[in-house]
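Ops channel
N.P.: pipeline sanity check, posting one input/output pair.
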């Protein structure tokens, strides 16, 4: 069951071997299936580039290979899953190109980390340089883990899994809502209420209340009751809509959670760890890469950076769902 995504990350015109990333055991689980894997066993996606006649370099593109082993299949397995043959899972994944462009990532500012004084030493393997007091993130590794995350969500989406996207800071909130709507995912973009997942029975009760109030408002019930009572119900509806509107159709805990800012969404991340829910997290240089199942090193403060990462994941989810139709 413990299968990994094996790829190689080398420019097509070079035979130089990049150093392996740091060894890190991360926990991947869904339902009652648990997978342990070593990141140093995972090699990099292939980068290809070419030159034009005028000597200009065509942007590099990440290409995910047809993998011999699939971690994504293991991640998205559930206790009721009947597909245990890894060969079948490999055929399901096939060969996909996510068009992860290094030049595009640089223009989005993904490589800009936090100040050197705020860094987390565990992020050292993902940092390539220092410039004017800030750390510069290694975009090769960003592309590698973003490609792996796209493979994961593609395979999960093709199996009909549920996704939850979390990002409550002011820069990510609107992007999270738009991305989740485009991919037909659940989302939280205002405030993470403690126990939203670990105390699911209470959350489910609130969701039922939200749906009932929405029906009452649509049917005009608020106009047929005393104004004072109507005002109380409207305030309840407004509050529930603000905090739970993005998950109003969620009937169970999600299969995969995508988190934009690890520091801001630490409570949500801890709940996912407690429940064994696989997580994909955009992490800056002040974060801990060992907490999430797939950590994508990158700028979590810039709007363009967040948008690019979410767009890639949303595209992969959409493609995964389309592959089953």
């Amino acid at each position: 069951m413990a299968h990994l995504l094996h790829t190689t990350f080398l420019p097509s015109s070079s035979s130089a071997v990049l150093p392996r990333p740091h060894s890190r055991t991360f926990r991947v689980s869904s339902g009652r299936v648990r997978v342990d894997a070593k990141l140093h066993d995972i090699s990099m996606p292939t980068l290809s580039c070419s030159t034009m006649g005028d000597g200009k370099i065509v942007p590099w593109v990440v290409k995910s290979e047809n993998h011999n082993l699939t971690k994504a299949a293991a991640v998205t397995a559930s206790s009721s899953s009947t597909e245990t043959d890894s060969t079948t899972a490999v055929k399901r994944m096939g060969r996909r190109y996510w068009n992860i462009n290094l030049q595009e990532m640089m223009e989005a500012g993904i490589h800009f980390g936090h100040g050197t004084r705020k860094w987390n030493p565990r992020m050292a393997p993902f940092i390539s340089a220092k410039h004017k007091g800030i750390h510069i993130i290694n975009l090769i590794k960003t592309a590698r883990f973003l490609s792996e995350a796209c493979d994961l969500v593609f395979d999960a989406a093709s199996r009909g899994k549920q996704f939850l996207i979390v990002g409550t800071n002011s820069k990510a909130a609107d992007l999270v809502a738009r991305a989740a709507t485009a991919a037909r995912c659940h989302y939280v973009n205002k405030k993470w209420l403690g126990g939203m997942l670990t105390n699911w029975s209470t959350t489910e009760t609130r969701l039922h209340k939200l749906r009932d109030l929405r029906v009452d408002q649509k049917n005009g019930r608020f106009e047929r009751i005393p104004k004072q009572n109507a005002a109380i119900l409207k305030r309840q509806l407004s509050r529930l809509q603000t905090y739970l509107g993005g998950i109003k159709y969620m009937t169970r805990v999600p299969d995969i959670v995508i988190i934009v800012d690890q520091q801001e969404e630490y409570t949500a991340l801890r709940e996912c760890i407690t429940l064994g829910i696989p997580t994909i997290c955009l992490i800056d240089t002040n974060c801990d890469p060992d907490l999430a199942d797939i950590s994508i090193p990158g700028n979590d403060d810039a709007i363009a950076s967040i948008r690019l990462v979410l767009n890639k994941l949303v595209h992969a989810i959409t493609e995964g769902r389309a592959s089953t139709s």
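N.P.: looks fine end to end. Residues 1-95 have pLDDT under 50 and may be disordered.
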